[in-house]
Amino acid sequence: MIFNVEVEAMSREKMKAIQLERLKQTVKRAYENVPFQKASFDKSGIKPEDIQSLEDIQKLPFMKKSDLRENYPFGLFAAEMKDIVRIHGSSGTKGKPTVVGYTKKDIENWSEIVARAICCAGGRPGDVFHNAYGYGLFTGGLGLHYGIEYLGAVAVPVSGGNTSRQITLIQDFQPRGLSATPSYVLNIVEEMKKMGINPRETSVEYGIFGAEPWSEEMREQLEEELNIKAIDIYGLSEVMGPGVSIECWEAQDGLHIAEDHFLAEIIDPKTGELLPYGEEGELVFTSLTKEAFPVIRYRTGDIASLHPETCKCGRTTIRMSRIKGRVDDMLIIRGVNVFPTEIESVLLTFKQLAPHYQVVIEREGALDRFEIHCEITSEYMSQIGNLADSQEIADLSKVISRAMKDMLGVSVVLRVNKPHSIARSEGKAIRIVDNRSKAVTA
Ligand SMILES: [Zn+2]
Question: Per CATH, the architecture of 331-441 is what?
Answer without folding.
Answer: 2-Layer Sandwich (3.30)
